[in-house]
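Example record

Each entry pairs one chain with its bound ligand, zinc ion.
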Amino acid sequence: MSSLKKKIKRRQEKEAKKDLQEKVGLFSKLEDKCLVCQKDFDKKNKEMVMSWSVIVKEDKVRLYCPECWDRANKLIKEIKDGYTNSKVDV
Ligand SMILES: [Zn+2]
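Structure tokens for the complex follow.
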């Protein structure tokens, strides 16, 4: 019983490790600059890794710094709001 538990635990650890490796692999494929403002991205800087946005779409990896990500989101919201408003007006 306990050996089975150990086995399961080991497998979970292995899966977690694999997941992490996939993520690290993703980062190694990344550009090291913000797609918009070309600001340098430091993969070894944990704070940067946490705050920057990585978008994976159709095998392409896009990297945005927090400022550009924020701006992009605001723009999307404005477009959305504008669309909604004009829809209401019409
Ligand atoms: Zn940027």
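The radius of gyration is 20 Å.
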